Amino acid sequence: MSATTGTEPEAVTGWDILSAADRIAGYVRHTPLLSSPFLDEIAGRRVLVKPECLQHTGSFKYRGARSALSAMPSADRRRGVIAYSSGNHAQGVARAAQEYGVPAIIIMPSDAPALKIANTRALGAEVVLYDRGREDRDALGAALAEERGVSLVKPFDDPRVIAGQGSAGLEIAADARALGIEDAEVLVCCGGGGLTSGIALALEDQMPGFRVRPVEPEGFDDARLSLEAGRITGHGGPEKGLCDAILTPAPGRLTFPILSRLCGPGLAVSDEEALRAMALAFQRLKLVAEPGGAVALAAALFHGKEIEADTVIVTISGGNVDAGTFARALDTL
Amino acid sequence: MSATTGTEPEAVTGWDILSAADRIAGYVRHTPLLSSPFLDEIAGRRVLVKPECLQHTGSFKYRGARSALSAMPSADRRRGVIAYSSGNHAQGVARAAQEYGVPAIIIMPSDAPALKIANTRALGAEVVLYDRGREDRDALGAALAEERGVSLVKPFDDPRVIAGQGSAGLEIAADARALGIEDAEVLVCCGGGGLTSGIALALEDQMPGFRVRPVEPEGFDDARLSLEAGRITGHGGPEKGLCDAILTPAPGRLTFPILSRLCGPGLAVSDEEALRAMALAFQRLKLVAEPGGAVALAAALFHGKEIEADTVIVTISGGNVDAGTFARALDTL
């Protein structure tokens, strides 16, 4: 990756995003901007929704995974890749590896949902299960990487991954420009900050009138706290919660400087608001959102007083949700 | 509308579809072709899904409504439009009229779901309720049309409506061509045949290697029976059923000759299969399909022995389903 300064050798630039978008073009889906007059009415402003739940593997994570694999020297890629994930990143990496015909090892907790394990295997990956309580995932991964000579693809703190997620920002810029929109707040579902920072970098170049704001679940709002404190700060909350896809303890070493320079302030929504947003995405957009993928829409719909722009663009970052949780969301209608 | 022969003054041609597509461009959403390796595996062939549930108002009906209003002489359009519908056509006409700033009267049964009545009103239409048991809808509509000088927009047997629905076929042709597909069976959810015949006309010109086939619910398969008999034949079944959006007694006077010339044989799926297809659209595509909108996907997934092509393209024609019915579909997972 190119460097912005001598002291930040791994910084990501707008150029890296254009380069990643070019590498993954024709593989990644260009997701549209959707809308509903009913959502506009609830929000009190224009709401445009970018449905990354319609991306391959059901979340934006495939963008970063495909970007990372496409940026590897082919000799490295041929030996294969490894990732830790019980969810969306696992499926993104598995699919990208399958497309390249290279091995993928995904380290998953043995108590991960059976369907997610089955899906990851069905995408051609070798799933290595570990016992969350007794085994050290990082040590297991390092040993496997050493033994097999495979390359680790981190979920967000990797410049190639951030650049890939940024391709979503280029699409937002192009589609918003076609609609004549020059000022907007862009609310992004935020875990480790890969998607948020990538979109922010893309829009910095393409849409200087846009402001990017991370959205998190209440109690897991480490990005918001870190932006307020001006340094990486953990949320100090529990490990588990409804919005499983975006529950990271703290922003990344690479993502935080980008968030800090370009994004904020952060927003946080309750689990109940996330469930109601899922129900409204069902009813008004005909989309399946997972809880963590619905927090940005929830902020647009239910936290309007914290938003200034006349137009708000929100990501639905993923739709990998089980039927039981979805039924719970529908019960809020 | 242009005529193909002297004896069929209202026949619709491929040129009418191009003209309609031109009039509605920029208003109608170009919906993509989506796919999932998991669906391909179930079907035993490549499955491409055209999600018209993502169209404005949640179904393809907006295409035909916008097309009809855009083709009216402006003096007629200014006086307003009238439609009978408790469902998707109502919302399509209401939205198109709202965009033109002209009055819309929608005649709905008083026992229609409260949400659908509320939605149609929220789109600016005047909803006139009638008692299904005691009042004659057609007489009521004719009296209102006479009194107010408004124009009737029929749900399918109108050349302007058929041409508008055909715009979905032009999109299928363009997107399939970009994927290098030249042979495919195109399965279309079929009520009165407006969408099926429109798509067939569009593909006749654009994709001569494609075969269009109507899909209906078992017991409501009047298009299939009519194609077999070579003349318009009713299904003779009940009026109501799970797949409410596509339960018409018989193909239309305008749509049937097109179906007969270009389409078939028809397919029919069970309600259980439609529900399972809804559940798989939820799980694998992150889309909300209504029962009638899921029958073509159901045929692709569960009636593979009746299909020959290596690639099947299916419409999901709408997603306007209540939470209770959707939960019933999820129970099949």
From TrEMBL, chains A, B:
**Gene3D superfamilies listed in its UniProt record:** 3.40.50.1100
Transmembrane stretches, by residue range?
Answer: none
What cofactors does this protein use?
A: pyridoxal 5'-phosphate
Where does the record place the Tryptophan synthase beta chain-like PALP domain? 26-318
Per the UniProt entry, what is one GO biological process?
A: D-serine biosynthetic process
Q: Keywords assigned by UniProt? A: Lyase, Pyridoxal phosphate
Q: Which InterPro entries match?
A: TrpB-like_PALP, TrpB-like_PALP_sf
One molecular function GO term is: ATP binding
| Protein family (similarity comment) | Belongs to the serine/threonine dehydratase family.
Which protein is depicted?
Answer: Pyridoxal-phosphate dependent enzyme
